[in-house]
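Note to self: keep these together.
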Amino acid sequence: MTEYPDPSGKPENPPAGPPPAGAPPYPYAYPPGPYPGGYPPPPMPYGDYYTPAPVAPRNGLGIAALVVAIIALVSSFSVAGGVVLGIVAVILGFMGRGRVKRGEANNGGVALAGLVLGVLAIVVGLAFIAIWVGLFKEVGAGDYFDCLQQAGQDRAKVQECSDQFRQSVEDKLTETRAPGR
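Structure:
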């Protein structure tokens, strides 16, 4: 085969080094040598020496424990609010603390606060249960339920039981001390 010379008259390989004084600049866009900047090395299939990408902390359980504990504490006058939600807050608090110990989360204080407030909500909820049971017995609600059970489907007897219970509650709650005592 015959090779044809370049019609521009420029040599295929420019001379090494800078051009002589008065000579035209390099015939190519970049001077000879390695490509500037380079490319990163390809990833290694085993034993990657690159640092892993940072993972965002998983703080959801600690925050959920605190929120549920606050709701439980505010609604501790009811059984579901104080005791049940308090137990949920304690469980979430323990799970959040476990994530902190494993290094998956960084809000150990929030999870601990949720755990402590959850225990407090359980205690306050149990105290309110005792108060409700005492008030239930004080106003004679047990007698009311016995009366309703004996009345059965008789509407007149059910109404009589309701009237007796209402009168009992009014008497217990409006008791006043006699003058001079």
